[in-house]
Amino acid sequence: MTTPEGRHVRLFRNGRNQAIRIPRDLELPGDEAIVRKEGDCLIIEPVKAKPLRELLTQWAPLDEPFPEVDSLPAEPVDL
């Protein structure tokens, strides 16, 4: 049932956790979400993918030298 406040959904138990069935038209992308409580409301947001540049800045540099690569002549390519 849809009301001006939102969509009526069912809550159920999954082991010791309470769960919610999210209707197909409200599905979130990915397979993880962030849940937070604001007053009596639960806010569910998808986890946004981090840009590659941001991920790379979190990684520690390698202490290994980059291996030498023999230069090979370029091969012709038919396009």
Automatic annotation (TrEMBL):
<dbReference type="GO" id="GO:0003677">
    <property type="term" value="F:DNA binding"/>
</dbReference>
<dbReference type="InterPro" id="IPR007159">
    <property type="entry name" value="SpoVT-AbrB_dom"/>
</dbReference>
<feature type="domain" description="SpoVT-AbrB">
    <location>
        <begin position="9"/>
        <end position="49"/>
    </location>
</feature>
<protein>
    <submittedName>
        <fullName>AbrB/MazE/SpoVT family DNA-binding domain-containing protein</fullName>
    </submittedName>
</protein>
<dbReference type="InterPro" id="IPR037914">
    <property type="entry name" value="SpoVT-AbrB_sf"/>
</dbReference>
<keyword id="KW-0238">DNA-binding</keyword>
<comment type="similarity">
    <text>Belongs to the VapB family.</text>
</comment>
<dbReference type="InterPro" id="IPR051734">
    <property type="entry name" value="VapB_TA_antitoxins"/>
</dbReference>
